[in-house]
Structures are given as structure tokens and as C-alpha cells.
Amino acid sequence: MNVPSDNSIFVETQAYLKLKNVLEDLKYEKGNIVHVIGTPGTGKSANIYRAIDELGLRVYDVECHLENLSATPQEVFKTIIDNIKRSLDVNSADEAYRRLSTFDAVLFADKFHDSHFLKDDVHGFSEWTLKSRKTPIFYLLCIKEYLKYRKEFKDLNIIFQTAWRLKIGDKKYDIFTDIPIISRILSKILGMIFKVVRIEYTPEETIKIVKAHLNVEEEKIKKYIKVYGCRPRYILDKVKKV
Fold it and tell me: Angle, to 10 degrees, between the axis of helix 218-228 and the axis of helix 232-241?
């Protein structure tokens, strides 16, 4: 399924084939930064992990295990770097980056954003971004790190499951996909600097994905699409509750 909870059933879509084509280049090139964007519920991580598996890429999956959500951007950044150094058994950042260059790519996906769903007593990066108003400072620290070690970064490929979430009332929004006009402008700017693949589906692809997992009438799926858009995970969750 094109959702992370069950990747044993997978429907190939145009977005997936584009992603797979982009990631295949990482076997032969270095210095690439790939941003995978998409509306919540489209299965960005499922597409990423599927492509990595099919291509046989050797990937370092970055983890983010925060002890508390009141951490400062500096503390969050240090926690992530320290975790990488510890896992690679190195003492310095430049040594860590050199070690990471031996992988086909460095991945920031579920284990980074949503580690709180995978492990008890930790907080993922996505949780912190919803609580902290200082997220931009964290990204400035990342830019500073890149400039400091730009020579080492030229030997790395990085895949970002990219999401910058805002919470307005009870609803969560991704600034790259969910806010009309602003999202289009931001994603276009992102695409001018990096390689960007958007995970999105046509209604026909969404129907195929849902039907591959559940025996649901096509007309019923179409009704859900009108309400939730082409978001297979959301539709599956609603169908299962009925």
C-alpha cells in the first residue's frame, strides 16, 4: 500500500516513477539534495522507502530522539548531530560527514520526523516543530553547518521527506502543499535550488490504491475523494471506521 503502515501492497503511480528515476541517479552521483513533498496522507515515506528498496540504495536513516519538546533549536540540532556521531562511532562532525559519504544517501524521513510513533518516551522532529515558534532558527543552524562543512557536503546525497507543518486551530497544514498560492510559490522556489519530487495522485490512481487494499465500491471512494482529496491514507482510515 502507498501508506507507511503497509508497504507490502504497492501501486505504482506517475509520482512514484518520477521519484524512483530521481533517486536512481544517487547511485552514480554525489552532492544531490532531493526534497520529497506532498500533502499529508499521500504516503511520502512509503514511496521513498519503496524506491530505496527497489533500487537497492544503501541509505543512512537519520533519527531524532528528543527528550522534551521545550528544547531550544540549538539543543535539537546538537541532539541530532550527537546521535549521528554516536551511531557512526566518531568524535567529530567532519569525521561523521566523511563517514556518511560512504552511503548512497542520507535520509531524513519517518525515523527523524515521527520517531515518537516508532519508539516510546521520545519526541520526533515534527512534534517539536508544532510546539516551537523557533523552527526558523533551527533551519538557520542547518544552513550555517552546511556552509561550514560545504566541502564534506559535496560528497553527500541527502533525501528529505520535506514538511513544514503549521497548526491552525485543530488542523495541521504543510506550507509546501496545503496553502493556496503560498505553497505553489514556496515549492517553486525550492525547486529552483534543489531537486523536488511531489507525491500526488490523480483520482484514478487514488481509487486503485484504495481498492488494492480494501474491497470498496468505486463510487464510495469517489465520494471520499471529494471530501478528503486524493489522500489514500485518510480515505482508508475513514473507510475502516465505517
Answer: 120
CATH of 14-200, one of 3.40.50, 3.40.20, 3.30.70, 3.90.930: 3.40.50
List, in sequence order, every beta strand (DSSP E) within the chain. 33-37, 59-61, 105-108, 158-161, 165-168, 171-174, 195-198
Q: Looking at residue 5, what is its pLDDT?
A: 47
DSSP code of residue 66? B
Identify the residue whose cell numbers are 498560492.
181
Q: Where are the alpha helices (DSSP H) in 25-170?
A: 44-55, 73-88, 93-100, 110-113, 115-118, 125-131, 135-148, 150-153
Average pLDDT over residues 155-160: 97
State the cell numbers at 207.
Answer: 481509487
pLDDT of residue 120: 87
In 3-state terms, what secondary structure has residue 148? helix
145 confidence band (pLDDT: 50, 70, 90): very high
Q: Rounded to two decimals, what is the model's pTM?
A: 0.89
Tell me the domain boundaries of the chain: 14-200, 203-242
Contact 101, 152 (CB under 8 A): yes
Dihedral Cα 123, 125, 131, 136, nearest 10 deg? 150
Angle (nearest 5°) at CA 160 between 158 and 162: 160
